[in-house]
Structures are given as structure tokens and as C-alpha cells.
């Protein structure tokens, strides 16, 4: 039960000291300037203790957001090696902004305030942060809160639950048209880097990400049957990548002059255990071909776009690119409209052709 003790200072000011004692639980106390506040707190605390809510809240008062981030970085991020560096940097941003606050003091409104600050800021390159970047920062913090709630029991609920994420753009679809592609491939063939052309052809013909391509090892390549096994992918699952045509022919020629001091297909010139850096040769080829607004990752968009324009379904494109769902490939749907129209026309002809 609760007891309220009235205290009077030398100046005549009053305060009210509340103690809540329930059998089997530690005593709880607080001081208020108004009697009504003291009574409200006593009633709420008794109710929370009986319902098993109070000490969860008390736990949240013991830990700061900085402690939560530090424990998450130490215990959880090592289980996500491919994302660890990026997510640590994102979590450190939140820690720098609100790390001093206890978890009980962090509200959805506070997170919204810093979400908006994040959105209005710039990247280290001096460019505005995109909504997609803000979403990634929020996702990193959200998962840390989820772990704190479900596994550490530091919180009763995550404040992120009531925070709206920025709407991401529909996604970039930049691919080379026939003329651009020919100019670019010619520039790659003329490059001083002997591997640029091969790497670009493999990227275009397989849809592999740059990291997947640069990290390839000979033991994962089957030149006889024409496929590659990617063991480390973005979604965490192994992926079989078919090899065919010009790309397979070039890779077979490349295998004849492979280096014996490394397992990498494309090792660096200085460190054999690290992949080659093609950034400068790639940029020079783009400049020679007079192609603007194009990045290495856009080679992957090219693969998806060419597949769509040649009649591949969204499900087939998702398999080639290694996406678990169709959400990421819906951006290419408009490129396969002709194929879809043909499918619908064929169905109508079969059903209603004799009418």
C-alpha cells in the first residue's frame, strides 16, 4: 500500500514524499510538489507493480541509449558481418545525438525530431541524404530496440513502433540503350586495364553486384558446366549464377592465364589477397564513351532491364538478381509491358478465338 508524508521547508513550501510497499516487491518512492500528483503516482505505481509492468519500466531507467548501442555492437553485429561496419556507423550517429538519454526518456517524438534532422543533413560526400538512407539509419536503431525489448528485457515496448519512416523513391532504373552500350563496351575494350572489359561483360550478363563479382574465387566457378556459386550474398543465401555466351568464353580465356598466388579471379596488383579496384578505369571508359549519370551498380539495372525487355517475368528477374521478393524488381515491370500484352492477347485468342 502507499503512504504519503508531508514535508515543510523553513520557507513554508510543502512537498509530498510517497512510498509504495507491496509484499514481495522492493519499496518504491518519489517526491512531488502537489498532493494530487503524489496520489496519482501512487495509484499508477501500485497498479503497474500488480500487473507486472513497473519493474520493466524501472529497467528502462537504468540503461541509456548509448549502453544499448554499445551492447548491440558488441553482441549482435558480429552475427551480421556484411552489414556490421555500415550499421555501426549508423548506430553511432544515434548514439552521438541521444545516447545520454535513458531508454525510458526516449519517446517517438524525440526520434521524429532526429529523423528529420537526419533527413535534412548531408552525406560525407556533401550530397543530401536520400529517404532510403534515412530508412536504413532508422532500421538499424529499430532492430537494436527490438533486441532490447525481446531479449534483454530493458524495455516494455519499442518507441520506434510509432515512428513513420520516410517514403522511399520508386527506385532508380538507369540502363544503357543499344547505342550507349556499344560505345561503352568499345571504350572498355580500349582501356589500359586488361580486365575492365571482362568484368563489365560479366556484370551485364549475370547481374552480379560489384562486391560479388570482385570477390569471386576460382573454386566457386564451374567453367565446364557454365555457372558460379555465390556463397556470400546480400540476402544471406547462396545463389547459383548461370554463365553463358560471350561472358563464359572470355572467362575461359581468362582462366588460362590465372595467377597462382591467389584464389581470386581479379586480384589487385599490390595485394594479391584483395580484389582489383576498377573505379578509375570504369570512370575513364564512361568519359571516353560520353556517357553521363551512370554508376557501376547501374550495370545490374541493365541486366534486369534487358531481361524484362526480352520477355523475362518479374519472378525470373528476381531469381537472377538474387531478390527474395518481387518488391525490388517491380521497377522493371513497365519494360515488360509488351511481353505481358502478348500473354494476354494469346490467352484471349485461345479462349474467345472461336466466337
From TrEMBL:
Any Pfam family hit: Phage_integrase
Domain of life where this protein originates: Bacteria
Keyword match DNA-binding: yes
SUPFAM superfamilies: DNA breaking-rejoining enzymes
Assigned keywords, A-Z: DNA integration, DNA recombination, DNA-binding
Keyword 4Fe-4S: no
Span of domain Tyr recombinase: 171-345
Domain Core-binding (CB): 63-149
Entry similarity comment: Belongs to the 'phage' integrase family.
Protein name per UniProt: Site-specific integrase
Amino acid at each position: 500500500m502507499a503512504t504519503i508524508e508531508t514535508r515543510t521547508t523553513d520557507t513554508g513550501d510543502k512537498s509530498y514524499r510517497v512510498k509504495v510497499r507491496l509484499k514481495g516487491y522492493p519499496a518504491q518512492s518519489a517526491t512531488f510538489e502537489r498532493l494530487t500528483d503524489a496520489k496519482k503516482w501512487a495509484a499508477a505505481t501500485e497498479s503497474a507493480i500488480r500487473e507486472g509492468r513497473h519493474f520493466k519500466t524501472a529497467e528502462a531507467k537504468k540503461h541509456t541509449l548509448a549502453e544499448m548501442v554499445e551492447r548491440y555492437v558488441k553482441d549482435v553485429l558480429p552475427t551480421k558481418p556484411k552489414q556490421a561496419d555500415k550499421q555501426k556507423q549508423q548506430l553511432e550517429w544515434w548514439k552521438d545525438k541521444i545516447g545520454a538519454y535513458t531508454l525510458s526518456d526516449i519517446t517517438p517524438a524525440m526520434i521524429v525530431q532526429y529523423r528529420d534532422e537526419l533527413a535534412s543533413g548531408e552525406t560525407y560526400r556533401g550530397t543530401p541524404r536520400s529517404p532510403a538512407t534515412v530508412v536504413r539509419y532508422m532500421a538499424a536503431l529499430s532492430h537494436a530496440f527490438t533486441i532490447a525489448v525481446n531479449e534483454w528485457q530493458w524495455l516494455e515496448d519499442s518507441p520506434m513502433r510509432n515512428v513513420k519512416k520516410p517514403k522511399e523513391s520508386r527506385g532508380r532504373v538507369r540502363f544503357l540503350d543499344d547505342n550507349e552500350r556499344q560505345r561503352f563496351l568499345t571504350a572498355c575494350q580500349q582501356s589500359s586495364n586488361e580486365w575492365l572489359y571482362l568484368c563489365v561483360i560479366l556484370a551485364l550478363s549475370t547481374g552480379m553486384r560489384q562486391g560479388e563479382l570482385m570477390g569471386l574465387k576460382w573454386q566457386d566457378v564451374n567453367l565446364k558446366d557454365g555457372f558460379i556459386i555465390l556463397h556470400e550474398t546480400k540476402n544471406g543465401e547462396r545463389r547459383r549464377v548461370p554463365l553463358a555466351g560471350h561472358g563464359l568464353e572470355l572467362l575461359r580465356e581468362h582462366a588460362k592465364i590465372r595467377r597462382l598466388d591467389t584464389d581470386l579471379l581479379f586480384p589487385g596488383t599490390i595485394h594479391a589477397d584483395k580484389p582489383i579496384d576498377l573505379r578509375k578505369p570504369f570512370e575513364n571508359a564512361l568519359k571516353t564513351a560520353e556517357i553521363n549519370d551512370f554508376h557501376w551498380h547501374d550495370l545490374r539495372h541493365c541486366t534486369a532491364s534487358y531481361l524484362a525487355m526480352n520477355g523475362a517475368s518479374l519472378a525470373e528477374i528476381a531469381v537472377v538478381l538474387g531478390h527474395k521478393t518481387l518488391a525490388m524488381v517491380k521497377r522493371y515491370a513497365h519494360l515488360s509491358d509488351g511481353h505481358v500484352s502478348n500473354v494476354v492477347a494469346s490467352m484471349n485468342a485461345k479462349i474467345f478465338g472461336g466466337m
